[in-house]
Amino acid sequence: MLVPAKKHWTTNIGQAAGHPAAFLFVLVYAALWLIFSPATFEWNAVATVAVFVMTLFIQRADRRDNLALHAKLDELLRVDNVARSELTRLDEQEPEVIQRHRDAEVRKSVG
Predict the structure, then answer these.
(1) Within 10 A of 58 (CB to CB), how many other CB atoms are there?
(2) Is 14 within 8 Å of 59 (Cβ atoms)?
(3) pTM exceeds 0.85 for this model
(4) Could you report the per-residue pLDDT of 15-47, keeping only the tens digit for each?
(5) How many angstroms separate the CA atoms of 96 and 103, rounded?
(6) For residue 19, what are the contacts with CB-CB under 8 A and spacing of at least 6?
């Protein structure tokens, strides 16, 4: 049975980047840049802020898609009597743990 692992700090940052509050952080960053160094807030600064915002949009859309996919797969695992129910919690693990699990499953199916 899989036990929820303590999340690595990089996982926490990735999840935070998909949170709506991350947009507020970028807006505050841009406002502070405008207040404390308005002379340097030129087109390259606008491009930098735009890249930050687009990165957050992409991260949020990716997180939404992943969560929806996991919810659908969890439902399929719940309704299938043969499926192992512990797999519904696999997405709570760190990527390295998931990869080890997948590698072990492949070895089982080949061997």
Answers:
(1) 12
(2) yes
(3) no
(4) 788 788 889 999 999 999 999 999 999 999 999
(5) 10
(6) 60
